[in-house]
Design a protein that fits this description.
The chain is an alpha+beta fold. It contains eight helices and 14 strands. About 40% of the residues lie in helices and about 25% in strands. The longest helix is centred in the middle third of the chain and has 27 residues. The C terminus is likely disordered.
Length: about 350
């Protein structure tokens, strides 16, 4: 009995040592060291930061471009890219301008990069531009490039590994084929054929099944979504004046046809305004707004008028306000086509 108690006590002490040992000897994992380059050009303070200086071939690198400038400065961040040097761009997000204080604003662009080569790799300069506060809208933006930034990409293989060296041949292993009764082979073949026939019948029936049409949705929701797509395309930022007005006018005319049953896409501006006034009701109260909007569209298309960015933003805002103020949840569209008609 005494020997049994001593054995139990020694076992418990051993378990305690095993459990406590890794805790006392556990190494702390240091956070990866970031790498930053900064530069000051004119009123801009530019910072480019990589969240680590060394990464494995299977790791991802986060690259952050931060631009700080006086309030009122217009900063144009780099355009979307699929490749930065030997790095593939897996994701890209932009924010700003964000007010830091009454005198300073901040822009940020964050890239998620994946390496495709090992060794010392260089992230090439990023191209951006800016227009100082108080400059005229037609002033050409000043170009700027960031400094290149280098990081080290490592491989998971040993340093002196020769991946082309032939490996030794594994010695042969004797295999004994199990004997399977003939009845099981027949049953497996029958079941496989039955499953194949059933799958073929199900696929044929599914292919013949008609695809249900999308459920009807309010006309104003479809029009507002089309405005969001137009805004995401950044035509105003790139001064694509005629394509912007063509699409904006098409969205508004299509919405008017859905909402008020007026053939707006097929009418001239004067014909449409005459019908709008004659129809009375809600649309007639917005006749002046529509008249100003459509005549500006005509000037862009036929007279090559060149409005500035504020005029383009005002036209966009007026179209959105008109749609929101005339919205009706009971006017549903079953299967709308993409709004691509041109400005009449």
């Amino acid at each position: 009995m005494r020997e049994w108690r001593v054995g139990m006590l020694l076992s418990l002490i051993g378990l305690f040592i095993v459990a406590a040992g890794p805790v006392r000897g556990q190494d702390t994992v240091a956070a990866p060291e970031a790498k930053t380059v900064t530069q000051t050009t004119g009123p801009l303070h530019v910072t480019l930061t990589a969240d680590r200086t060394t990464l494995g071939l299977a790791d991802r690198l986060q690259l952050t471009l931060t631009v700080e400038a006086p309030t009122g400065t217009e900063v144009i961040l780099p355009e979307a890219a699929e490749q930065l040097g030997t790095f593939t761009v897996e994701g890209q997000t932009s924010t700003g301008p964000t007010a830091i204080d009454p005198q300073t604003q901040r822009w940020q662009q964050i890239y998620t990069l994946e390496a495709s080569a090992i060794g010392e790799q260089v992230i090439p300069p990023l191209a951006l531009s800016f227009r100082e506060a108080g400059a005229a809208p037609d002033t050409e933006p000043t170009p700027l490039q960031t400094e290149p930034l280098s990081v080290t990409v490592t491989s998971v293989l040993p340093e002196n590994a020769d991946v082309m060296a032939p490996q030794d041949i594994t010695p042969p292993v004797a295999l004994t084929a199990p004997r399977v009764p003939l009845g099981l082979w027949v049953a497996a073949i029958v079941v496989s054929l039955a499953l194949a026939v059933g799958l073929f019948w199900w696929l044929q029936r599914r292919a013949k099944r008609p695809v249900p049409p999308p459920p009807p949705r309010p006309a104003h929701e479809l029009a507002l979504e089309a405005l969001q797509r137009l805004q995401r395309d950044n035509l105003m930022e790139h001064q694509a004046i005629e394509p912007f007005y063509v699409r904006l006018s098409s969205i508004l005319r299509q919405y008017i046809e859905w909402r008020f049953q007026l053939r707006a896409p097929e009418q001239t501006t004067e014909e449409f305004l005459a019908d709008a006034l004659a129809s009375g009701g809600l649309i007639a109260t917005h006749r002046d707004l529509l008249s100003s909007f459509l005549h500006q569209c005509d000037l862009v298309k036929f007279a090559r008028h060149q409005p500035d960015r504020s005029d383009m933003q005002n036209a966009f805002d007026h179209a959105k306000v008109f749609i929101e103020q005339t919205a009706d949840d009971e006017v549903l569209i079953a299967a709308p086509a993409e709004v691509t008609a041109s400005c009449n």
